[in-house]
Amino acid sequence: MKDAERVGALTSGTARGTAPGACSFRIGRASDNDIVLADDTVSRHHAELRFLDDGRLLLCDSKSSQGTVLTQFDESREVDEAFVTPTDQVRFGDMTVTVGDMIEELRLKHPELRTAYEERAPTLRRCECGAVKREGEACPECG
Ligand SMILES: [Zn+2]
Question: Cα(79)–Cα(74) distance, rounded to whole angstroms?
Fold first, then answer.
């Protein structure tokens, strides 16, 4: 289940939508989201994409009715929260987008994000074990 307190701790002391620093962006059907997905199967506030201080990207479901499904290496699973990379695919209701597409849309709306993100996370890769690691470094999960 979703551990809201743990997620809150990860982003404590930071302001939404500001960079540098960890920041989070809302995804959903309502027009006040940072990324608007206009489909009836998408919840009004469906999920959040968080840019952490260490450069990693955390995707968090916002108790959506249809759930958030992450596809990595051709395997799909419903997630409450998961680290993601730009090549991962995410399904919100019936809508499928890539993490990279969402980042690109956020960059258009928040030019400061381009600098902050590219400085901190230029080399994130998905390890064969499913964890996120930096290129050329040992995997934190499988070594
Ligand atoms: Zn690994």
Answer: 15
CA–centroid distance, residue 138 to ligand 1 (Å)? 8
Q: Please, what is the end-to-end C-alpha distance for the chain in angstroms?
A: 27
pTM of model > 0.90: no
DSSP-assigned beta bridge partners for residue 91: 69, 96
Ligand 1 ion: residues within 5 Å (CB): 127, 129, 131, 139, 141-142
pLDDT tens-digit map of 11-39: 333 344 444 445 889 999 999 999 999 99
User: And the tokens for 68?
Assistant: 């958030």
